[in-house]
Amino acid sequence: MFIACGKEKGRCESGDCGGSLYCEGRGGQPPASLFEITVAADQDYYDVSLVDGYNLPMSVSVSRGCRWVGCVKDLNSICPGELRVWSGGRVVGCKSACMAFNTDWDCCRGAFGSPDTCKPTRYSRIFKGACPSAYSYAYDDKSSLATCNRGDYVLTFC
């Protein structure tokens, strides 16, 4: 996601795509709030993810009575100091614990790479408390993954 991109096309303070205006299939540089969707013939799967950190609030509303997902709270304002990304004297993003500390525990890998062993950390709990419908860690499926049968999606950056 682009935020505070200024006059340089594609050069952003967070969510940057290597200086390019378009990511061309690559993800933006974390930390970045993500909308993820898999469109299938019979059912779509979608979510807002903070697993790669947070840089801006967003919401997704869907037609056909399907579930709303999003993170509309400004997590940059409650981001723990050790996760903050600063630019121009202000917080422009909040790293995930995985990005900040790169441990198997925080990244849900190695011995912690399964739903049974990967559990929420104190940092992912901060994200989840502020944004209950968004993914806060890798296996946060039960409260975060939504489904819809051929909905129309409206993504809003708040």
Structural class: alpha+beta
Contiguous uncertain segments of 5+ residues: none
Please work out how many helical segments DSSP would assign: 4
Task: Strand order, main sheet: write it out.
Answer: 1-2-7
User: Cα-atom Rg, whole angstroms?
Assistant: 16 Å
Task: Tell me the domain tally.
Answer: 1
Alpha carbon gap, first and last residue: 12 Å
- The helicity comes to 10-25%
Proportion in β-strands: 15-25%
InterPro entries: Osmotin/thaumatin-like_sf, Thaumatin
Protein name: Thaumatin-like protein
Keywords: Disulfide bond
Pfam families: Thaumatin
What does this 3D model show about the protein?
It is a single chain. With 158 residues, the chain is α+β, with helices and mostly antiparallel strands. It has a single domain, classed as Thaumatin (Sandwich), CATH 2.60.110.10. The protein contains 4 helices and 8 strands. The protein has helices spanning 97-101, 104-107, 122-130, 141-144, and strands at residues 34-38, 44-49, 58-62, 69-71, 84-87, 90-94, 146-148, 153-157. A 3-stranded antiparallel beta sheet has the order 1-2-7, with no helix packed on it. Strand 3 (58-62) and strand 4 (69-71) form a beta hairpin. The longest helix has 9 residues, at 122-130. It is globular, with a radius of gyration of 16 Å. The two termini are 12 Å apart.
Which key phrases capture this entry?
158 residues, Thaumatin, three-stranded antiparallel β-sheet, 8 strands
Topology:
Blueprint (H helix, E strand, L loop, with lengths): L33 E5 L5 E6 L8 E5 L6 E3 L12 E4 L2 E5 L2 H5 L2 H4 L14 H9 L10 H4 L1 E3 L4 E5 L1
Antiparallel strand pairs: 1-2, 2-7, 3-4, 3-8, 5-6
Keywords: Disulfide bond
InterPro entries: Osmotin/thaumatin-like_sf (IPR037176), Thaumatin (IPR001938)
Protein name: Thaumatin-like protein
